[in-house]
Amino acid sequence: MQAIRPRETGGAEVLKLEERETPVPGPGQLLVRTSAIGVNFIDVYQRRGVYKVDLPLALGLEGAGAVEAIGAGAAEPAGGVVVGARVAWASAPGSYATHVLVAAERAVPIPDGVDARQAAAIMLQGMTAHYLATDTFALRAGQTALVHAASGGVGLLLIQLAKRAGARVIGTVSSPEKAALARQAGADEVILYATQDFEEETRRLTGGRGVDVVYDGVGASTFVKGLRVLRPRGMLALFGQSSGPVAPLDPQVLAANGSLFLTRPTLVHYTATRSELLARAGALFELIARGELDVRIGATFPLANARAAHEALETRQTSGKVLLIP
Q: pLDDT confidence of 96, banded at 50, 70, 90?
């Protein structure tokens, strides 16, 4: 098989394709030939060494493809999967490869009406958007949400799910082109953070009340002002840190700004059981198959050119989902 397994952390130049022996699935594992591979900021953090993982780096967690071999006892936890079946996943380290071992209990069957690229595009970012809007802060009609990086992979999906719940959505983006994408997804208002102060604009757009929830995947550059645009007893859900980690916080700040709630959710805790994983992914697949959820794939790169994919993601040249194609 071919795979990207950097032997050191660093810049995107460490991402090089190499030949490796195709693995044999062990008990409870599926060997899957990948059709599409998701690129996410967690991959960048691991590559940089921000998140410590073993070397060589088994980069990539998310993808979709067809089962080529089934390890002992793996068919049952995967729902009776057979060779040739299409599956998707969000937690298989080493997915930057033509073949990957996927734990059978974490493999999700891809239904008819959903293609492999759509499936790969929504497993991590789509399920993140889903748990944010339905569980972390369960939006309902009449509430207002502020979505940072509104034209990104999570942002565009989160806007759509928030609008389905009846919420008002304010998005922040970096350019007029990205603002157009956010509006197309359903955002009611869009703030260009490069030329507008999102704190002042959010206050203006809410008549000084503030928003009910801030969904923040950006981190360092947005966090402090994000707390200040919340209404009393509002929530900030910090689910990423694309601009860098947030500085330590004195809990008294939450009290001073209105008895606020702060959470740092991660997908693993919102797909802790197989039933929850299938329910969350299944809800998204159903919306896609019915044409009620638009999955924007903003860029695709050959697996061999993962370096360019990372560079595009890091410099904010992309909108929607970035995929690698073997």
A: very high
d(CA 139, CA 162): 7
**Assigned token pair, 314:** 């890091």
The reply to whether 218 and 281 lie within a common domain is no
d(CA 220, CA 237): 13
Residue 136 domain-assigned? no
CB-based contacts of 304: which residues, under 8 Å, 6+ apart? 2, 17
pLDDT grade for 316, boundaries at 50, 70 and 90:
confident
The dihedral built from the CA positions of residue 137, 141, 143 and 147, taken in this order, carries a sign that is positive
Q: What is the pLDDT of residues 271-281, one digit of tens each?
A: 999 999 999 99
Residues 233, 21: Cα–Cα separation, whole Å: 54
> What φ, ψ does residue 244 adopt, rounded to 5°?
120, 165
- Domain of residue 282 covers 2-124+268-325
Peptide bond into 77 cis (omega under 30): no
Each residue of 124-156: pLDDT tens digit? 999 999 999 999 999 999 999 999 999 999 999
Whether 254 maps to a domain, the answer reads yes
Pairing of strands 63-70, 86-89: antiparallel
* C-alpha radius of gyration, the chain, whole number: 20
pTM for the full model? 0.95
- The total of structural domains in the chain comes to 2
